[in-house]
Structures are given as structure tokens and as C-alpha cells.
């Protein structure tokens, strides 16, 4: 039985997460978020709260939980893997023996945390690229931010906070901390109530768990290591780190010869002293933390996440995703930091164009508008104002035909979110194509550069499909080489291809693929990348290909 106290804690955590997301624009429509799961209480809480938020949020985003087995002695990730499967959470388990690299490169008695954390971060970056994720969510909370601030202030001589949102220097990744406003005591109470299967930490992993929480700062020794601590805490997520295990000797060289006798992370470390100090002065540092978070959020510096469109612009999303089937009409969603007024809807609605595809002939459609004012959900999560403009096709139109809903791409009134996923129509318009009853088709193909001369190809379908007759196949490169299927779900199939980025490819759809919901057969075909519309995803190593024709 869930107690009133437990409900209050969950409500408070959801409220804190919602505030952090809203204040720092951590999640936007179309995001695919890698949720880093260490197996500790913070990552469990973050995963559950993000999933709850996903179900009621006015914007659509995907979550993928990722857990890394680093090959440490005594490790057993079975409880976490079983929990993810039982909860129905999409997840990926990675296995990289970074422990062997760390023990090989560091001397006896050295602190493992810094090198281990850097290798782990590189693996997460690589996984995000391979899995098509544009954001990485870490479970750092308010106490971690305070501790990091104190460590950097007293041992690094710098006001270097832990920002809720960071963009890597190369622009490929956005690291977010949805729990940045949450108290550790609330997270601990929530984890206790939910009975999460917390992974036990062998001695060599205690350091890694603490380093994962404080971006290496609490793991460092005093004096000579303090500048590294300040730099890594303030800039760690922005560093274009080499993907493990590239050049581990370089990463570990600076750790040799340091003061002997230190074991693990926290033996006479500044982290312990900072945490003790935090317990006494956390309340008085609330104002200082607010200033630090504001500094971290950018204050005009785009690289720290403060850039982007002016907040007065309304965000406009066109739903559902491109080439969806089984829907009677297209929808345009308008939301933003302020209330969405009738005047805003009246100014944007006339610009919506409903037309046949191909041919671009305007077709009759009946608009309807649902206005939802800005409010707070029962669980305390701030819900932005939302206006849904639904354009329902005339009943006399061919249900198996294809239609397009679009808006001008450039406007002083609104910002089209994740416009690289939208189809680019003639006349500078962007939007989506859909059909009420047509069988499923290929919606998009995403190509993402991997390290070591490999590319990930992700084929996404217009609706979930059954593939009992066999999987599609991909041939990649100027001299086509067959790719290996690495993952398959009803909505998408992933491949690993050998070769360099931006090479031509062809996708073969076998006979026998059918819509999961209706059973309608998907037409067998071979699609070439040269016959697709191409758009690069900003700040990422991925390119989206969209078929120019539909069968």
C-alpha cells in the first residue's frame, strides 16, 4: 500500500523535475534520450520519474535506458536487467572491460575514479551516437550540485557549478540532469518505498558510483588534483572525450606517481569533507546555488545551453511523425513558456496547409481546436499551455491516398521543433505526410557515424510491423557490402555497416511484412538513398533520409 508520505515524496520529485526541465529546456519534442542507469537509487528514480512524465507530457519524446558493465570483480547486473525487463522499459546493456584498462594503467593504491569515469563517459557518448539518441540523462541531484560547487570553490578556487544542461564542445551531445532540483533525501525515500533492486557495490565500484554522481570532483585528492577537479566538474560533459578504449595510456598517464596510500574514492578525500560541510550549510547556499545554476545555464553563452530561440517564440510541433498511417487527419501543437492565447491560434491556423501528396492540391479538411491552459498535474509536474489544432480530412476523400500538412518553415511567430525530422516541401514549407488507411511504409532511415569505420543504420516504419517472413536488409557503400542486423523492434530495425559516413546505401524490404494492428501487407521494395530527401541533425553525427515517394 502506498502511504501518503510516499505520495508526497513522489509528487515533490515530479514537481522538482518538471521545474528543472522547464527552466532549462532539458526535454523537447522529438528527443530520444539515453537514460544512464548505474544501478544506484538516483538512476532508478530518474528512470521511473521520466517514464511517468513521458506518459503525460504535452510533447513526445523517447527513452532508452542504458547500463554499462565495466567488468569489475563481483559485479552482477542481473537484478537491474530483470527489473528493466519486468517494467517494460526499453533498454540496452553494454559490456566493456574498462576495469582491466584502469588496473593496467594505474599504480597500486591510486584512485581509479577519474580514469574510470572518463572511460565510462566516452562509452556513453559512443552508445548515444550508435543508438540514435540526441540527449544523455544523468542522475545528479541537488546535493551533488552543492558538493561539486563546494569542492571547486574550496579546492579549485573557482565558482564552477554542475549545470543542469551542457552541450559537448563538438556539439554532438546534450547532457541533461533532470534531478538537478531534487533533494537526495527525497530520492532515498522514494527508492526505499519503491524497493528498487539497488546493485551492491564492490569496493572497487564505490569510487565509480561516487564519481558518477559528482563528475569526478569528489573522487579527487587535495591540492595537486584540485584544478583537475574544478575543470572536470565544470567542463566534463562538454569535453569531446575519446571513446573508450582509445588511447587509455594517455588518459592514465597523469595519474602515475601521485601520493601513495589512497585507496578507493573518499579515504581522507575532499569529497568527505565537502559532504560534511554540505550537511551544515546546504540551506544557506540555496541562493548561491541559484546563481551558479544561472551561470551554468548559459547567461548568453550558447555552449552552456543558454542559447537557442528566444523564449517568447511559441514552439510548434506537427504530429504525428512523418508518414504515419491509420489517422484521420494531421495535428499542429502549439506550446510555450506562457499561456497560448486564442489570438496566437488564430494567427497560426490560417497558415496550415492540407494538400494531396504528391501533387500539392489543397483538399477539404475541418479544423477543430482544443485549448489546455498552463497548469500543474496531480503529481506536481508543471504542464505547459497547449493548443491542438486538428485538421480532419473530408469523409469523401480516398482513405488510402497520401496527404500532407505543412507550415512555413520560417516565421517570426513560432519555432518548428526538430524540423530536421519534417519533410521539406516546395515553397519553403515543412510538415508531415500521412494516410488514413494505407499499408505501412518506410518513414525514415537514419545513418549515424560510429567509431572505427562503422555506421549505424536505423530504419523506422510508419507504424509497428510484423516481420515473420524475415528482416529487411541493407547494402552499404559505393561498393555495396551487406550490413549486419543489430536490433529489431516492431517500429524499427537497426543495422551495423562497415565503412565511412555519408556513403550511398540501399534498403531491401522482403515480402511478408505486415502491419501489426491491421495486418495490411507492406509492399516489398528496394529503396536507394539517392532517391531520398536528406537532412543532417544539428549537433549530432546523424543524417536523416526520407523516401521521396510512397508506394
Could you please describe the fold and organization of this structure?
The protein is an alpha+beta fold. The chain has three domains: 4-304, Rossmann fold; 314-435, Immunoglobulin-like; 442-547, Immunoglobulin-like (Sandwich), CATH 2.60.40. Helices cover 28% and strands 27% of the residues. It has a six-stranded mixed sheet, with helices on both faces. Strands 24-25-20-19-30-29 form a six-stranded antiparallel sheet, covered by helices on one side. Residues 203-311 have low confidence and may be disordered.
Under CATH, the homologous superfamily of the largest domain reads HUPs
> In angstroms, what separates the terminal alpha carbons?
53 Å
Contiguous low-pLDDT stretches (5 residues minimum) are 203-311
Q: Which second-level CATH architecture of the largest domain applies?
A: 3-Layer(aba) Sandwich
Give the overall shape.
Answer: globular
Query: How are the strands of the biggest sheet laid out side by side?
Result: 3-2-1-4-6-5
Main attributes of the structure:
6-stranded antiparallel β-sheet; Immunoglobulin-like; 551 residues; 6-stranded mixed β-sheet; alpha+beta; Rossmann fold
Briefly say what this structure is:
The chain has 551 residues and is of the alpha+beta class. Helix content is 28%, strand content 27%.
List the helices and strands and how they pair.
Elements: H1 4-24, E1 32-37, H2 41-56, E2 62-69, H3 78-86, E3 91-95, H4 98-105, H5 113-130, E4 135-137, H6 142-155, E5 165-167, E6 174-176, H7 184-194, H8 203-214, H9 226-235, H10 248-253, H11 270-281, H12 286-296, E7 314-319, E8 324-325, E9 329-336, H13 342-348, E10 353-356, E11 365-372, E12 375-376, E13 382-383, E14 385-393, E15 403-408, E16 414-416, E17 423-425, E18 429-435, E19 442-450, E20 454-461, E21 465-466, E22 473-476, E23 481-482, E24 484-489, E25 492-498, E26 505-509, E27 514-515, E28 525-528, E29 532-536, E30 542-547
Helix pairs in contact: 1-7, 2-7, 5-8, 6-9, 6-11
